[in-house]
Write a structure and sequence with these properties.
Elements (H helix, E strand, L loop, with lengths): L9 E5 L1 H4 L7 H16 L4 E5 L3 H14 L4 H22 L23 E4 L8 H11 L5 E5 L4 E2 L11 E2 L1 E3 H8 L13 H10 L3 E5 L3 H9 L6 E4 L23 H26 L4 E5 L5 H8 L3 E6 L2 H6 L2 H4 L2 E3 L12 E7 L10 H10 L1 E8 L24 H9 L4 E4 L13 E6 L1
Helix pairs in contact: 3-4, 5-7, 6-7, 9-10
Length: 442
């Protein structure tokens, strides 16, 4: 059985509009935040909380202008920065028993081997907001999720306070986001994510969720990977299947070396499918098997030749059309979040390099579906950060929207009450090559 490991930290940018909405400290919000964070810490979560300035910062800037007539952008920024530091000290005081003693005010001075589950950050330099600081934390500490808490449910195509016909946007690419917020910073700018932060997040291919910070039941869904309300900003669109990847805005992934693609690509794919079929037959030996996200059905073909009654589910019509004629009849069109088979149907349900292509909000639902249609075993091969070998042959595949560390997936599987995670009942290559989880239904 696997034991849970420390999860990667989650970055939360706490807007000043939530901490001091009208220049007065919002005690109701802070009490709810305190309860929420502590509950999540008990579940093994770790957080960076970055405090914004809010209207109190604007009041200081306005007061300075009123007295002396005009101020430089740098002076205006410094007033806002010091306001964020006051708000950060308030958060640090609230979580003093579980927070790191140092508030991050200089992001060049990185933390080393910190043990506390909470770290609080504040503003740093003139020229950008705490949104930018939060993106820096995501970059430097390997966070796979950044949440921008504000007083709005969504990003809108126009300011909803000024335009009654403003439309909520559920998903955005960074190119689309930059068109909304522009590319220049100004002190006190009011935007769902400031332009400088957007540019860095775009460069890092980061995923950011913008949501209403006062809706803690919704925030729980985000943190725990359930379907949620909020705008997802990503470097690509995720409304199509793996094979139908015309949704991606920008350069697609591919082989680094032409010889790899032209001479060996197809051969290696078939060799990998044969290897997987042999491992499944030798170490699990199921009578019936379902390959979810089966693509062209190459693995199904090999499993059937080895005497396994294998079937497949595939979302992409393009992939199904490419399947061999004698295999296509064993493949059903369907989605992993709604597998078109009854409960307890197969001895083994498996996915190979599928889960990392799912939007984070669909991961738990997809895993639950694979458990539902299995009566004995569930196998998931997932591309994770540790699988370094692929970087020597492939460019980055941007359709992998959920590439996390192995321990992220371990935590999800360990929390499932209906299965146990098996450690040594299947031959596995080292994590440098692949990450595989074998589950047994209770």
């Amino acid at each position: 059985m696997l034991k849970p490991q420390k999860e990667d930290p989650i970055i939360i940018s706490v807007g000043g509009s939530l901490i001091v909405p009208q220049g007065e400290v919002n005690e109701v919000f802070l009490k709810k935040l305190n309860i929420f964070i502590r509950e999540q810490v008990e579940r093994g979560k770790r957080f960076f909380l970055v405090a914004g300035a809010g209207k109190i910062g604007r009041k200081y800037r306005d007061a300075g202008k009123a007295v002396i007539g005009s101020m430089t952008d740098a002076d205006l920024d410094w007033l806002g920065i010091h306001t964020t530091r006051l708000n950060a000290h308030l958060l640090r005081t609230i979580f003093s028993d579980i927070a790191h003693p140092r508030i991050i005010e200089n992001y060049d001075k990185k933390l080393r081997n910190w043990k506390e589950p909470i770290v609080v950050g504040a503003g740093w330099k003139p020229g950008w907001s705490t949104d930018y600081d939060a993106v820096i934390l995501a970059r430097d500490y390997g966070a796979n999720l950044m949440i921008n808490l504000s007083n709005i449910d969504w990003v809108y195509d126009n300011d909803p306070n000024k335009y009654k016909d403003a439309k909520a946007i559920k998903k955005l690419t960074w190119e689309e986001m930059e068109k909304l917020v522009g590319n220049k910073w100004s002190p006190g700018i009011n935007a769902p994510l400031d332009p400088i932060a957007s540019q860095l997040a775009h460069k890092l291919n980061l995923t950011v969720i913008v949501t209403n910070g006062e809706n803690f039941s919704n925030l729980k869904k985000i943190v725990e990977g359930d379907d949620f309300k909020g705008t997802v900003i990503m470097p690509f669109k995720i409304d199509a299947s793996f094979y139908d990847r015309e949704y991606y805005t920008g350069k697609k992934g591919g082989y680094k070396h032409r010889i790899t693609e032209s001479l060996f690509g197809a051969f290696f794919r078939r060799l990998a499918a044969l290897y997987r079929a042999l491992v499944i037959k030798l170490f699990i030996n199921p009578k019936t098997c379902l390959d979810v996200g089966c693509g062209r059905g190459i693995l199904i073909s090999y499993l059937r030749k080895l005497g396994v009654e294998a079937y497949g589910v595939e979302l992409s019509k393009t992939a199904m059309e490419l399947a061999q004629d004698d295999i296509r009849s064993y493949i059903k069109e369907g989605d992993i979040v709604n597998i078109p088979f009854e409960n307890d149907r197969f001895d083994l349900v498996l996915t190979f390099d599928v889960l990392e292509h799912l939007d984070r909000s669909k991961i738990k639902q997809a895993i639950d579906e694979t458990v539902r249609v299995s009566k004995k075993h569930i196998l998931h091969k997932i591309y994770t950060v540790e699988n370094k070998w692929i970087t020597y042959f492939h460019k980055r595949d941007f359709s992998r929207v959920s590439v996390f560390q192995k321990k992220y997936w371990q935590h999800i599987f360990i929390e499932l009450h209906s299965v146990s995670v098996l450690r040594n009942s299947l031959f596995r290559l080292p994590s440098f090559f692949e990450t595989i989880f074998l589950l047994k239904k209770k």
